[in-house]
Amino acid sequence: MREPFVRLLLGGEMRFLLIVLVALACLVSTSRVDAQSASSRDGRIEAAKKAFAVGTRAYGEGDFDTALHEFRRAYELTESPDLLYNIATVSDRMRLDEEALEAYEGYLSARPNSVDREHVASRIDILRDAIEARRQAEIDAEIEARKAAIEAAARVKAERPLTQYVGPGPGPWITIGTGGATLVAGAILFGLGQRDQNAVENAPSGSSYSTVQEQADRGPRRTKAGIALMSVGGAAVVGGLVWQLTGGHEEAMPEISIGPTGISVKGRF
């Protein structure tokens, strides 16, 4: 038969169960504990009593972290369900709702006929409602965050252009540069050819025949080569300019997709 235990009123708010030595001795007198040595049994009882005393004192001083730690230790040493009430009460004060609910439920399951049944059952209902309300608030907050992200993405999608102009790249400028160099080279050859022809036409009396003949043969060749190079170079410059002006194209911008799981972007960059 379990011995009666003493209830303490702390701070005018919480009731604590002070497990007396006789009750602890009875609780540890189970078949599992009976198999252990008497010295080990007595050591656990003493440790549990000290932990309970430290926890009770800490609770009275408002040190709830220490109180919860010591009450847990006392429970681990004795497995007394009465200590679940202490654990639940401190956890409740610390707003550890899940732990408080679990401890209250464990206490009420082990002590269904306790005089505290109505109070404990009331706290269980309140904690369940609080936990459910918090979970629902977290769900609502996540839904609102996703809605805000979807609306922001929709605004960006509506404001951005559907296509973008993509130029032809460096090809036209390379063509223009090469054509310009060819055009300059052709102009130089053409000028040299014209100079040779002018030298032949205006050769002074007594000029060497071989010199005049060489200039007469070289001048037309240079002139023709210059004209050919200028034609090719000019065509390359004009073609490069036309390529640069007309070689670009419109390309679709990356598309923003909005779905139930979030926002994704697809397309080429």
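Second entry:
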Amino acid sequence: MFTIIGGDGKEYGPVTTEQVRAWLAGGRANLDTKAKAAGSEEWRRVGDFPEFSGAGVTPPPPVATGPVDARAMADDLIARAAPLEISGCISRGWALLKSDFWPIVGATFVLSIVAAVAGSIPFLGLIASFLLTGVFYGGLYYFYLKKIRGQPAEFGDVFSGFTLAFGPLVVTSLLVTLLTTVGLICLILPGIYLAVAYSFAYLLVIDRKLEFWTAMEVSRRVISAQWWRVFALLILGALLALLGLIGLIIGVFVTLPICIGAVAYAYEALCNPPPKA
């Protein structure tokens, strides 16, 4: 029997090992969730108990070790991916936040402040926005992915874009910004299409170790197959973040993690789908 501390800070239990495993599988808990065994007063990570070592852990997708055919990779992912569940992504983003509330909010807050400060530096802010957006948010999404997969995630993972894929993320950030801006200036609609279609580019660079153009093309092709669903998810996430900002300024640091988690879950659904039966 185990008692855990939920994302709301409350204690839940004692419950059986099977119930904890169900919470892990459903995203209500992860391997970093604090728990104690019946008869003990010591709080430990769920992942530190032998009963759960490896439980709820989703293996990361294989990384690229050489040239990748973007079309072939995208076609394979499209064939295996189920229709994206928009409400499911949002609800799982909320469940992820509740399962590890303060570390997720804190990491998102710090990264957002650092990115905002970098973008506000006179003369250098525009350059930072062009070049470092992918580095900042690639690392933040990678932190969320590790949480989603039940892997140990540390605060430093938020800035892993600077250590794991700095060069490719810089180039990806530059190209994504330039192409979407040109699309918006020219006819607006092409810019909107590309802004949505490139939503997974940073994640594919840092998670799958794809080259910048391959990542952009895989993202574009995979999302284009379900473009309206991803578009609706991004719009819903933006509205949710706006409500958090309007209702109470600091509320955005609660709604924003839900939105980021929802996009990360969408990435997992479309770019890391289960193999064909």
